[in-house]
Amino acid sequence: MFKDIYFLNVSEISNRIRQGEFSQAMMLKQFILFSILFYSGFNLPIVLAGEPANSWLVWRMNILTIIVQAVIHYYGIWYTYQINAKGDGKDYLNRVFCLALPISIRLLFYILLVVIAIIVVFFLLVFINNIELNDYFVSALTIVLSGAYSAAFYYLVGKYIRVCSGAA
Q: Which superkingdom heads the taxonomic lineage of this protein's source (predicted)?
Protein backbone atom coordinates (compact mmCIF):
# COMPACT_ATOMS: atom_id res chain seq x y z
CA MET A 1 0.00 0.00 0.00
CA PHE A 2 2.81 2.42 0.84
CA LYS A 3 5.08 1.36 -2.01
CA ASP A 4 4.68 4.54 -4.10
CA ILE A 5 4.08 6.95 -1.21
CA TYR A 6 6.60 9.74 -0.74
CA PHE A 7 6.71 10.93 2.84
CA LEU A 8 9.81 13.13 2.75
CA ASN A 9 11.47 13.18 -0.67
CA VAL A 10 9.74 16.14 -2.31
CA SER A 11 12.47 16.53 -4.95
CA GLU A 12 12.06 13.01 -6.26
CA ILE A 13 8.26 13.16 -6.42
CA SER A 14 8.47 16.54 -8.17
CA ASN A 15 10.85 15.16 -10.78
CA ARG A 16 8.72 12.04 -11.32
CA ILE A 17 5.60 14.16 -11.83
CA ARG A 18 7.43 16.46 -14.27
CA GLN A 19 8.74 13.48 -16.25
CA GLY A 20 5.29 11.87 -16.39
CA GLU A 21 6.42 8.89 -14.29
CA PHE A 22 3.90 9.51 -11.50
CA SER A 23 0.50 8.09 -12.43
CA GLN A 24 -2.92 9.41 -11.47
CA ALA A 25 -3.35 6.36 -9.20
CA MET A 26 -0.09 7.18 -7.40
CA MET A 27 -1.23 10.79 -6.99
CA LEU A 28 -4.53 9.53 -5.60
CA LYS A 29 -2.73 7.43 -2.98
CA GLN A 30 -0.66 10.48 -1.97
CA PHE A 31 -3.81 12.60 -1.71
CA ILE A 32 -5.74 10.00 0.32
CA LEU A 33 -2.93 9.62 2.82
CA PHE A 34 -2.44 13.39 3.06
CA SER A 35 -6.15 13.90 3.60
CA ILE A 36 -6.40 11.26 6.30
CA LEU A 37 -3.34 12.49 8.16
CA PHE A 38 -3.79 16.23 7.94
CA TYR A 39 -7.36 17.06 7.02
CA SER A 40 -8.74 14.60 9.57
CA GLY A 41 -7.19 16.30 12.47
CA PHE A 42 -4.05 15.64 14.37
CA ASN A 43 -6.13 17.17 17.11
CA LEU A 44 -5.13 15.00 20.01
CA PRO A 45 -5.12 17.11 23.15
CA ILE A 46 -2.22 17.43 25.54
CA VAL A 47 -3.26 16.11 28.92
CA LEU A 48 -1.66 17.99 31.77
CA ALA A 49 -1.31 16.76 35.32
CA GLY A 50 -4.10 18.08 37.47
CA GLU A 51 -6.66 18.33 34.65
CA PRO A 52 -10.22 17.34 35.47
CA ALA A 53 -11.19 13.68 35.29
CA ASN A 54 -13.02 14.16 31.99
CA SER A 55 -9.73 14.67 30.13
CA TRP A 56 -9.88 10.98 29.17
CA LEU A 57 -13.28 11.65 27.66
CA VAL A 58 -11.65 14.33 25.54
CA TRP A 59 -8.96 11.87 24.43
CA ARG A 60 -11.50 9.19 23.53
CA MET A 61 -13.72 11.61 21.66
CA ASN A 62 -10.78 13.07 19.72
CA ILE A 63 -9.57 9.62 18.74
CA LEU A 64 -13.10 8.70 17.68
CA THR A 65 -13.30 11.93 15.68
CA ILE A 66 -10.04 11.13 13.90
CA ILE A 67 -11.24 7.62 13.05
CA VAL A 68 -14.62 8.84 11.78
CA GLN A 69 -12.99 11.61 9.73
CA ALA A 70 -10.36 9.25 8.29
CA VAL A 71 -13.06 6.81 7.14
CA ILE A 72 -15.15 9.61 5.62
CA HIS A 73 -12.14 11.09 3.82
CA TYR A 74 -11.01 7.74 2.47
CA TYR A 75 -14.43 6.81 1.10
CA GLY A 76 -15.17 10.37 0.01
CA ILE A 77 -12.02 10.56 -2.07
CA TRP A 78 -12.64 7.10 -3.47
CA TYR A 79 -16.27 7.98 -4.27
CA THR A 80 -15.34 11.18 -6.11
CA TYR A 81 -12.49 9.44 -7.94
CA GLN A 82 -14.88 6.75 -9.19
CA ILE A 83 -17.30 9.40 -10.45
CA ASN A 84 -14.48 11.10 -12.33
CA ALA A 85 -13.36 7.75 -13.79
CA LYS A 86 -16.88 7.08 -15.10
CA GLY A 87 -16.66 10.37 -16.99
CA ASP A 88 -13.59 11.32 -18.98
CA GLY A 89 -11.21 10.12 -16.23
CA LYS A 90 -8.99 13.18 -16.56
CA ASP A 91 -7.65 15.79 -14.16
CA TYR A 92 -9.20 14.39 -10.98
CA LEU A 93 -6.92 16.16 -8.54
CA ASN A 94 -7.09 19.46 -10.41
CA ARG A 95 -10.88 19.27 -10.33
CA VAL A 96 -10.97 18.47 -6.62
CA PHE A 97 -8.62 21.30 -5.78
CA CYS A 98 -10.55 23.79 -7.93
CA LEU A 99 -13.93 22.75 -6.57
CA ALA A 100 -12.79 22.58 -2.94
CA LEU A 101 -12.71 26.33 -2.29
CA PRO A 102 -16.21 27.29 -3.46
CA ILE A 103 -17.74 24.15 -1.96
CA SER A 104 -16.00 24.75 1.37
CA ILE A 105 -17.15 28.38 1.46
CA ARG A 106 -20.74 27.30 0.71
CA LEU A 107 -20.60 24.65 3.43
CA LEU A 108 -19.05 27.12 5.87
CA PHE A 109 -22.06 29.39 5.39
CA TYR A 110 -24.47 26.50 5.98
CA ILE A 111 -22.56 25.21 9.00
CA LEU A 112 -22.66 28.71 10.53
CA LEU A 113 -26.45 28.66 10.18
CA VAL A 114 -26.58 25.23 11.84
CA VAL A 115 -24.29 26.36 14.66
CA ILE A 116 -26.44 29.44 15.30
CA ALA A 117 -29.53 27.21 15.43
CA ILE A 118 -27.79 24.84 17.86
CA ILE A 119 -26.72 27.75 20.07
CA VAL A 120 -30.31 28.97 20.20
CA VAL A 121 -31.57 25.48 21.09
CA PHE A 122 -28.84 25.05 23.74
CA PHE A 123 -29.72 28.45 25.19
CA LEU A 124 -33.38 27.45 25.41
CA LEU A 125 -32.59 24.06 26.94
CA VAL A 126 -29.87 25.07 29.36
CA PHE A 127 -30.72 28.56 30.53
CA ILE A 128 -34.49 28.67 30.25
CA ASN A 129 -35.44 25.06 31.01
CA ASN A 130 -32.46 24.25 33.28
CA ILE A 131 -31.59 21.08 31.39
CA GLU A 132 -28.01 19.98 31.92
CA LEU A 133 -26.11 18.74 28.86
CA ASN A 134 -23.40 16.23 29.66
CA ASP A 135 -19.99 16.06 28.01
CA TYR A 136 -20.84 12.88 26.10
CA PHE A 137 -23.79 14.53 24.37
CA VAL A 138 -21.79 17.59 23.37
CA SER A 139 -18.87 15.44 22.16
CA ALA A 140 -21.17 13.17 20.17
CA LEU A 141 -22.85 16.19 18.60
CA THR A 142 -19.44 17.55 17.61
CA ILE A 143 -18.47 14.25 15.98
CA VAL A 144 -21.79 14.05 14.12
CA LEU A 145 -21.57 17.65 12.87
CA SER A 146 -17.95 17.37 11.72
CA GLY A 147 -18.75 14.06 10.01
CA ALA A 148 -21.80 15.57 8.33
CA TYR A 149 -19.70 18.49 7.10
CA SER A 150 -17.08 16.17 5.58
CA ALA A 151 -19.67 13.87 4.03
CA ALA A 152 -21.50 16.87 2.53
CA PHE A 153 -18.19 18.13 1.14
CA TYR A 154 -17.53 14.88 -0.73
CA TYR A 155 -21.14 14.61 -1.86
CA LEU A 156 -20.93 18.08 -3.43
CA VAL A 157 -17.49 17.42 -4.92
CA GLY A 158 -18.92 14.27 -6.49
CA LYS A 159 -21.93 16.17 -7.80
CA TYR A 160 -19.78 18.80 -9.52
CA ILE A 161 -17.08 16.36 -10.70
CA ARG A 162 -19.91 14.55 -12.45
CA VAL A 163 -20.51 17.79 -14.38
CA CYS A 164 -16.78 18.41 -15.03
CA SER A 165 -16.06 14.91 -16.28
CA GLY A 166 -19.26 14.37 -18.22
CA ALA A 167 -20.20 11.35 -16.10
CA ALA A 168 -23.85 10.32 -16.39
A: Bacteria
CA 25 – CA 13 distance, rounded (Å): 14
d(CA 125, CA 54): 23
- Domain extent for 62: 10-165
pTM (2 d.p.): 0.74
In order of 6, 20, 79, 92, 112, the CA distances from 40 in angstroms are: 19, 30, 17, 21, 20
Please state the length of the chain.
168
DSSP output for 87-98? TT---HHHHHHH
Tens-digit pLDDT profile for the chain (168 aa)?
677 788 888 788 778 877 888 888 888 888 888 777 766 555 544 444 455 556 677 778 888 888 898 899 999 999 999 999 999 998 898 888 878 888 988 898 998 999 899 888 888 877 777 777 777 777 788 889 889 999 999 999 999 999 988 886
Helix (H) or strand (E) holding 139: helix 135-165
Distance of CA 100 to the CA centre of its chain: 11
- The enclosing H or E element of 131 equals none
Please state the domain count of the chain: 1
